[in-house]
Structures are given as C-alpha cells and as structure tokens.
C-alpha cells in the first residue's frame, strides 16, 4: 500500500502532466503542425509512467552515497527516456499513422534527445526537492537532536569512550550510549539527555562497539537495550527508543533488525 507521501506525489504528477498537455496544445506556435489531443495525451501518459517508475526507483537510493545516487539516477533516467520515446514512436508509427512500417530501428528513437532532456530536468528537480527536504528537516530538528558538545577523542580499549564536555573530558560507559546519528563528517551521540558530537565516520566508530549496538540505517545506529518497539507506517519502518526518539530503518537492514528485535 502506498504511503500518504507517495499518494501526494502521484497526485502532483498527474496535475503536472495534465498542465503540460494543455500548455503544449495552447502555446504551439504553428497551427498547421500542432499535435492532436490524442497524441499529446499518449505522449504525456508514457512520460507519467516513466517518471513515476523513476520516482519509485529513486526512493530505493536514499540510503546510498551521493555519488552512487547520481550515477544510477543518470543511467536510469536516460534508459527511461529512450523507453518513453521508443514506445510512443512505435505506437505513433504503427497505430496513429495507419501502420506505416517503413521506419528502421533507430527511427523509433527520433526526438530521443528531447525526451532525455525532459526526464533529466524532472530527475534533477526530484533530487533537488529531496535534498532540500533533508536540509529543512535538519534546520527544524528539536534542540536535543542538534550538535551541542564537541568531541575529539575516540573509543579506547576499556569499553569507555572519551567525550569532551566543554573544558572537561568525560569517560562515558559505552553501554550508556543510546543512539548514534551521523552527519556529514561527525556523529551525534545520545547519552541520557545529552547529545555529544564526535568527529568520525559511522563505520569507523561502531566497529569498536559491543554486539548490543545495531545499525538500522546508513546514518543511524541504536543500542537495543534502549529500544522499546518498532513502528510500521505503510512501507516505512522506525525503531522507537525509550526517550521517544524514532530512528528510520532502511530496507537494507530491515530483515536483520526485525529478526534481532522479534522478542519486543
């Protein structure tokens, strides 16, 4: 079942493509060559299907590094654009133009650059909105989730971590760490009511942690001793912490998380 967010997205998609049909028809500069309503509706329908498919694919890339997102998005967008143009041309040549079969193979991709440019613009807008929403969410995050205390030390061999609190270095029992959330080049470590900042990578930091810590997302690691439940909202799974915090569970970790927390 689609989430409310995806339903809203598809409604906006329908409105955008419908507006494009009307705008193209009414603004065509040459009345002699203006495309028919049937042709415009078919072309936009194929475009709607391809762009919606791309959106579903892009949501599966949210947990990937930015470079991977860009590379896979470009490949998928170009492929979808050629599929869009080829499908529409095939229908036009063999149905709308009364089965005119003299077109060779590459003729099915006439105006392919136009479709590719349109989908590239659409994909760029999709990712721009996605990153803007991430940035806006960080700005609106509650104070407890924002970096407050600089940390410069790393985990030692005695199951404690040295965290700098102002001018004082605090030795914190690792098992009192409730969750770890990574930013661009730092970690936000929740210990009780404090959120401490440690400049390190998630991978390098959690490899020194005991087995009660589980990664649930590329940017989230939780201590299962502080987990109180799992929430499922359509296709989105979240881990509930004892202090009320929620941590998203990506598809990559969903199976292992549910298996580990099956007793909750």
Give the spatial strand order of the biggest sheet: 1-6-5-4-8-7
Distance from first to last alpha carbon: 25 Å
How many DSSP H or I helices? Answer: 6
Main sheet properties: 6 strands, mixed
Helix content: 40-55%
Sketch the topology as an H/E string, one letter per element: HHHHEEEEEEHEEEEEH
Mean pLDDT: 78
**What is the count of β-strands?**
11
What does this structure look like?
There is one protein chain. The chain has helices at about 5-25, 35-60, 65-95, 110-140, 200-205, 250-260; strands at about 150, 160-165, 170-175, 175-180, 185-190, 195-200, 215, 220-225, 225-235, 235-240, 245-250. It has a six-stranded mixed sheet. It folds into two domains: about 5-140, no CATH class; about 145-260, LytTr DNA-binding domain (OB fold (Dihydrolipoamide Acetyltransferase, E2P)). The protein is built from six helices and eleven strands. Helix 2 (about 35-60) runs antiparallel to helix 3 (about 65-95), helix 2 (about 35-60) crosses helix 4 and helix 3 (about 65-95) packs antiparallel against helix 4.
List keywords for this structure.
264 residues, alpha+beta, 2 domains, three-stranded antiparallel sheet, 6 helices, 11 strands, elongated
